[in-house]
């Protein structure tokens, strides 16, 4: 297989690729096993209104503890699931669990669930979702789905059709990681979003970069023009929180307000401190 001149390097390269592929196949198999026994967990991260300081909802984030390798980052196992196709089962598991758990929370907070672009290519998504809502008893108004811009590229017409069906059920839809993907004003205009989630990279840069602040300001202005609330993700400092509030951002999420927690709805900071920080000004 190897070319004569660079034989050794090519062999090693191919061996390396095989090894990577083998590991990913193994991970996909282990993930399938975990899904089959409902072995994934969900961590919840609080979202708060910047007007009132009230909790507006919790984002559900998938967590997987591999029997040998320990906790694996979602970035890693979600991409393996998407590649191997088991993201459909994984996504359904996450949805069912999030709806079931949210239905039993003491407060009727909204739960936000991430959808993979692959899930949005399945015409059966809306039916599955309807079954899950019925089965868990969660009112549709308490569910929000987060999708990224990439989800809308593959087959725009069919994705739009599925999203409209979902919205018609009373479930809301947020555009996630806004500003990092393939954004166009046309996308915002033609899809029935209820919320824009501005990517945490802009919040991270905002203290140092006037340009990042300008982008945040522009997204908030855009949101207010088209009537979509804007949530800023990745808020870690009080300075960022102050800036977002003074720019008129509607909601925030981030380590300052609460880390994702496996204990269910919870906040890592004394909520009074945060509430005063939010209500100041
Ligand atoms: P995302 O939907 O943008 O989720 C937010 C990520 O930012 C989470 O990482 C969260 O822990 C992290 N984060 C929140 N606040 C802060 C902060 O203040 N600072 C920093 N540095 N990070 C913060 P996580 O849980 O590792 O998830 C990463 C990504 O994996 C998610 O990004 C989402 O795209 C994907 N993901 C997670 N769960 C699911 C799922 O159930 N289904 C699908 N399809 N994707 C999922
Ligand atoms: Mg998200
Ligand atoms: Mg996000
Ligand atoms: Mg993100």
Describe, in short, the structure shown.
The chain is an alpha/beta fold. The chain contains ten helices and nine strands.
Describe this structure in words.
With 281 residues, the chain is of the alpha/beta class. It contains ten helices and nine strands. The protein has helices spanning 7-36, 74-84, 87-103, 125-136, 156-168, 185-190, 200-205, 210-226, 238-246, 271-279; strands at residues 41-49, 55-66, 70-72, 110-114, 143-148, 172-178, 195-198, 230-232, 251-252. The chain has an eight-stranded mixed barrel with strand order 1-2-4-5-6-7-8-9, surrounded by four helices. α3 packs parallel to α4 (125-136). The chain is globular.
Instruction: State the helix count.
Output: 10
Helix content: 40-55%
The counted number of beta strands is: 9
List segments where confidence is low: pLDDT < 50 over at least 5 consecutive residues: 1-5
| Chemical compounds bound to the protein | ligand C2E, magnesium ion
Largest sheet: 8 strands, mixed, barrel
- Radius of gyration, taken over Cα atoms and rounded to an integer in Å: 21 Å
Strand order of the largest sheet: 1-2-4-5-6-7-8-9
Instruction: Return the average pLDDT rounded to an integer.
Output: 90
The chain-level structural class is alpha/beta
Protein name: EAL domain-containing protein
Keywords: Membrane, Transmembrane, Transmembrane helix
Domain EAL: 24-274
